[in-house]
Amino acid sequence: MATEAKQPASWRKTFITLWIGCFMTGLNFSMTMPFMALYIETLYPYGKFELNLYSGLAFAVTYLAQAIVSPLWGSLADQKGRKLMCLRASGVMTFTIFAVGLVHHAWTIVLLRFIQGAFSGYINNAVAFIAGETPHERSGSVMANMMTANVTGNLLGPLVGGLLAGFAGYRVTFFVCGAMMGIVFLLTLFNTKEHFTPIPAKKMKPMKEIFRQLENKNLIFTMFVTTLFVQSALMSIAPIVSLLVKSLMHGAGNVSLASGIVAAMPGFGTLLVASRLGVKMDSVGPLKILTLGLVAATLVFIPMYFVSSPWTLGFWRFLLGIANAALLPAVQTVLTISVPREAFGRIFSYNQSFQAAGSMIGSMMGAFISGLFDYQAVFVVTAMLMFINLILILKMRRATAA
């Protein structure tokens, strides 16, 4: 691993490149996310429950695959380096995203997204990559800035995707996204440098030993659970956001563009405060920021149940974005400062597994609840998840202080 003296001269260029890579990855995901259900709807005249189910599956299988294989990739990352993992993810995503634009059956989309999930993980590996290159005193601000990359991509993606889908069609949007992931692969290959000493498999410490050496194991496990809960809440509406907007608009108007705007609104809020919260984390500690974010998220989800127009929904999602800036970056900062660097790949991969499991649970939860009840009922459940998570964090902080 790089010494502190070497880091200032090398990590900034790598950071900028990985920021761009995370931005483009977030952009590509969010360009197609708002209208995935609408795209599936064009393939066959499915009923409401079937359409919600296939839309949920198209999201969920990606994260199911991630949850299963992430520990394997994390172990390989600690042996071979995180740069190789970023190349693996961006390379496979180039082909799978492009191929989604060629399909004619919903199950083909589900299969391709399962393959994508099994080999994905660019953003999480990029975070682990830069975490190992960044001085500890800059961890909070760097983690927050890395989040702004994904958030900025998620912010612009729905707008770009909505416009592109409206003018050129859904399939062309997938082709463009695949080409952009090819650019991410090339940028990562030629413009990043990892100060990494390969660790032979025989010399790697078992995870049991690493966990035994951690000063606060409960803190790490609580962060994993927090990632699961937060991601479940954030992803619960993702598969059906375009269908919710369509119902609020009563089928009239440019649903793709409106869905893109609504999907993008959290990004505006996160982008507005992420950098400031990152600096604040370095001074007051990430746990205080995380607690504040959970309180805000719980309160913001409740009024979404009562929305009657896409613009009201967009307003509350904007406020959710502000709360979101205090959630996963705080978790990643806690992990960065609490575990040894030689275990970053595996620890972050475990966290990615919990994040993927949360995305899978959230996607299916949203699909089933909206299919059985109505779309807004999803927000009641997500508010409850955030409240339970808040209680867990408060109990953990109380136990740590004692």
UniProtKB/TrEMBL annotation:
<feature type="transmembrane region" description="Helical">
    <location>
        <begin position="257"/>
        <end position="277"/>
    </location>
</feature>
<feature type="transmembrane region" description="Helical">
    <location>
        <begin position="172"/>
        <end position="190"/>
    </location>
</feature>
<feature type="domain" description="Major facilitator superfamily (MFS) profile">
    <location>
        <begin position="14"/>
        <end position="401"/>
    </location>
</feature>
<keyword id="KW-0472">Membrane</keyword>
<feature type="transmembrane region" description="Helical">
    <location>
        <begin position="375"/>
        <end position="394"/>
    </location>
</feature>
<feature type="transmembrane region" description="Helical">
    <location>
        <begin position="16"/>
        <end position="40"/>
    </location>
</feature>
<dbReference type="InterPro" id="IPR011701">
    <property type="entry name" value="MFS"/>
</dbReference>
<feature type="transmembrane region" description="Helical">
    <location>
        <begin position="143"/>
        <end position="166"/>
    </location>
</feature>
<protein>
    <submittedName>
        <fullName>Multidrug resistance efflux pump</fullName>
    </submittedName>
</protein>
<feature type="transmembrane region" description="Helical">
    <location>
        <begin position="52"/>
        <end position="73"/>
    </location>
</feature>
<feature type="transmembrane region" description="Helical">
    <location>
        <begin position="219"/>
        <end position="245"/>
    </location>
</feature>
<dbReference type="InterPro" id="IPR036259">
    <property type="entry name" value="MFS_trans_sf"/>
</dbReference>
<keyword id="KW-0813">Transport</keyword>
<keyword id="KW-1003">Cell membrane</keyword>
<feature type="transmembrane region" description="Helical">
    <location>
        <begin position="314"/>
        <end position="335"/>
    </location>
</feature>
<dbReference type="GO" id="GO:0022857">
    <property type="term" value="F:transmembrane transporter activity"/>
</dbReference>
<dbReference type="InterPro" id="IPR001958">
    <property type="entry name" value="Tet-R_TetA/multi-R_MdtG-like"/>
</dbReference>
<feature type="transmembrane region" description="Helical">
    <location>
        <begin position="289"/>
        <end position="308"/>
    </location>
</feature>
<dbReference type="InterPro" id="IPR020846">
    <property type="entry name" value="MFS_dom"/>
</dbReference>
<keyword id="KW-1133">Transmembrane helix</keyword>
<keyword id="KW-0812">Transmembrane</keyword>
<feature type="transmembrane region" description="Helical">
    <location>
        <begin position="85"/>
        <end position="104"/>
    </location>
</feature>
<dbReference type="GO" id="GO:0005886">
    <property type="term" value="C:plasma membrane"/>
</dbReference>
<dbReference type="Pfam" id="PF07690">
    <property type="entry name" value="MFS_1"/>
</dbReference>
